[in-house]
Amino acid sequence: HTLVIGAHNNNATYSDESVEVLIDDVTIVEAELPSTEPVQPVGSWLSGLSHTVEPGVKRVLVFTAHVEDNDGVPNLASVTYGGQTMTKIIEQSVGWYTRAYVAVYILEEAGIAAASNGAFVPTWTERPDNVSYSSIFFTNVDQVDPVGMSGSNRTTSSSTLALAAEDSLETASGDLVFVAGTCGNTGSYSVNNDFTEGIELTMSSSDAVAGYKQATGTNEIPSISHSNLNRQVVVGFVVQNNQ
User: Fold this and answer.
1) Mean pLDDT of each 10-residue bin along the chain, 243 residues long
2) Strand-by-strand arrangement of the 40-47 sheet
């Protein structure tokens, strides 16, 4: 790129006239163009309460918690990552005495950059006995409005659980749709509707799953299936592209 700065005198009357141009405090700033890359996972999808920062630009960190417990209604009240406060996106529970529960938290680029370490610290109103966690980084995410539409559902009578058709998630090309769920039995999980399973977690008497799908601009319905029918919850939401 060549940038030329000059002056033109359009009213000269003598051949020896001159023009002096004084330029001070010139700042050239590269415009931030919209990303042409879709939201995509980076690094590994991990279980547990530790995840070293993965490289990338315009990142978000997504953290899931999965519970089956009979000690009251589960509630993950807050989560920090490296001392930075994460934001709760969505949660869902089902059951009367024993309950299945899932919750999802997110942290944007500024919080990731400010994190002092890679440790998650969850705070429960009543800490469950059977709980598992997962985490994943995504890049090319809108930092002003990273999360689009979201929805959840629950059942005690179906091995396949999806968002209701009227709750389908509107997407734009380049977005990513996230799904997570918990079942009150052990067995095996699958994610439906062309989603990719990212991780499957096993607790002492229950299972959990999380996954994603690259969006193309059509409405999406997060859906999961478990091999062993029991109480089950599912949540889904759109991670928005930086367009």
Assistant:
1) 75 78 75 74 98 97 96 92 98 94 98 98 92 98 98 96 97 98 96 98 95 97 96 98 86
2) 40-47, 131-139, 60-69, 99-108, 87-94
The pairs formed by 188-193 with CB atoms below 8 angstroms and a separation of 24 or more are 188/226, 188/227, 189/224, 189/225, 189/226, 189/227, 190/224, 190/225, 191/222, 191/223, 191/224, 191/225, 192/160, 192/162, 192/223, 192/224, 192/225, 193/162, 193/220, 193/221, 193/222, 193/223
Coil, helix or strand at residue 114: helix
- Whether 32 contacts 116, CB under 8 Å: no
Taking the model in full, what pTM does it have? 0.85
Asked if residue 173 lies in contact with residue 218, where contact means CB atoms within 8 angstroms, the answer is no
- Strands 60-69, 76-81: pairing is unpaired
- By C-alpha distance, which of 74, 78, 125 is closest to 233? 74
The 8-class DSSP code of residue 151 comes to: E
